Amino acid sequence: TGWYRHAEIPLINGWLVRLGAAHQMRVDVTETPSDISEESLRAYDVLLINNANELDQVFSQQQRAAIRQWYQAGGGIVGLHAALVRQQGWEWFSELGGCDFESDSNYQRAKVMVDPQARDHPAVEGYGPEFWYSADWHNHTRPVTGLEGVQVLLRVDESTYEPVRDYFLEQGATPMGEDHPVSWTRQYDGSRFFYTELGHDLRSLDTEFGRMHILEAIRWVAKSTSEE
Question: In whole angstroms, what is the distance from residue 55 CA to residue 88 CA?
Fold first, then answer.
């Protein structure tokens, strides 16, 4: 990470390895930026960004170009939680994600709504039209609804929780309002990107829904599902 480091990144890394092993996926983990190169990326179908923020401070311009070229050639990217925090310094990745971090909530239970157009997506299938879930919810700089190639999967109902915690209220932050996406896909610039708010800590992931959500996110960006 280039900025704030979430304390449970190592726990989530281990959880991802175990999840992959249980479903015949090879998962390698690194926190060493130099491990990422044009050559090393060739071995992988998916790059999963576990809360790694401000990546322009982590990867060199050459490494960022290698990731972009790998993606454009068909590699898929999954972003967890803070993967869309302070990424404006990497213009391409910021555009791919569609927004950045503005503020957040405390860990709270909230009503989550499945977009009607996405109910058959494998990462949310069987959970529509709405359900309750607990997580730390981000407020983004803009809704991604309507951006080219974006399909919103989940929105959170701000009337069911406190969307801005006190720290950010004191700085003048405001909720996003009725259109508050918390998970989406994007088919853009040659391949597939998946983002989810889940992943601030392990408790937001290690549930029946969380395990399915992340597993199917990986499969979707790897193009190993029949969903288009």
Answer: 9
Instruction: Kindly report the backbone phi and psi dihedral angles of residue 103, in degrees, each rounded to the nearest multiple of 5, phi listed first.
Output: -170, 180
* Residue 4 covered by a domain: no
The 10s digit of each residue's pLDDT in 116-129 is 999 999 999 999 89
User: Which candidate, 67, 65, 63, 96, places its Cα nearest to that of 79?
Assistant: 96
What is the domain extent for residue 182? 9-221
pLDDT tens digits, one per residue of 168-201? 999 999 999 999 999 999 999 999 999 999 999 9
Q: Is residue 86 part of a domain?
A: yes
Distance CA 186, CA 150 (A): 4
Amino acid letter for position 86: R
Give the integer Cα–Cα distance in Å for 228 and 220.
Answer: 9
